[in-house]
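quick one before i forget lol
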Amino acid sequence: MYRKILALTIVALVTFSCNSLKPSGSVKNDPPDAPSNPYPADGAVNQEISLNMTWGWNDVDGDSLTFNIYFGTDANPPLIESNRRGSSFAPESLQYDHTYYWKVVADDGHGHQTGSPIWQFSTRALRSFDLLGQYTDASQGPFFDISGNIQSSYLYVTNRHSSGTRDSSLILDISNLNNISVTGYIRGALFGNQFGQGYLYSVGRRDSGFKLRAYSLGDPTNPNEEFRFDVSNIQDLAVENGYVYLYMNRFNVGQQNGVITVHDMAIVDTVITQPGPNWGRLRVFGNLLLLAEIEALEILNINNPDAPQIVTMAPTPGQCRDATISGTTIYIALHNMGIAIADISALPNTVPIGLIASVNQSTDLLLASQSILYVADYNLLIAYDITSPYSLYELARYQAPARITSLSFLQSLIITYTDSASTSGIQVIQIQP
């Protein structure tokens, strides 16, 4: 009996002692501070449609916070994301000339939430292009490829117009953009008009058959033919460091297609390329020569210009019409799809980056210049900022009078357009400031 009483006494003392050590209440936890210091700042205007929104935060208890984000065009924005970790957010599909509202609610995971005030910002209006000058005498058209001698302010435009003997190129004086005028013709120049070490090269018909011609430009208004030789089945040419590269499509005559290299008006090499019945377009960028065919894009290394080598050949899901390079990024025009973007820093490997959808399903021409990508989509010209190829955003749009047939950047952007001989012209334009 004594032992039982003693045991009960010990248990009671231990129980009392443990209970006396428990705190009378839980540890205090304070709510987080309201999110602050938003970017864009509250009331900011003229913001780009591609931006990364950020905010400041603080929690006196050092808790790890998550954030609920409210965003939209309504003054009382809806919740679009919960429990986001990190204090930044990149909204998708922003539109030009819109006002957006947003707020952030911080959650400390202990039942406390604190919201910011509702902030707002406005995106800038979509810019257009200023028309600096134009030539609209359709009787001289239709107009196609452009090359220009900027030093002497002359423009050479393939017009495929029978002003003399067969096809020709028009020579325009653009020294006064308010009064662009014709100063002469290059007879028999069907296409090309590419400059290279003192000569203007073109392919065309004159007396009989097709010729590759080299014209000296001592008098830019009256180019003098210095060299020529016969060519056949040529569809495009590009010039780099005195070498002329010709794309030869002989599929329809039962022979192989290829790229011919010409130096000092003599053929020095021929590279067999992708077989196919359709035309191709050549572009040269440093030591890379691009061949855009309907079925594929081929990249050739011309570091040794006497012996170009195919680096890679990539079949394209859409009709490949053009390609351009900026830095280590290639932009590919897929006629009915849009612009495919890829990293080519480790050729022959190409790493896809993304695709910008076509507006008119006629993405046919591309030109990259000064961190801007110009895109011709039928008669619509779109300019994109390509400072970061992973986050392109649109800068401006321009509606040409007819289908755009060429893009050239010669101090300003020059386009040709044509739908027929009655609707054809040349315009000099620039993005509005």
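fyi Confidence is low (pLDDT under 50) at residues 1-24, 162-166.
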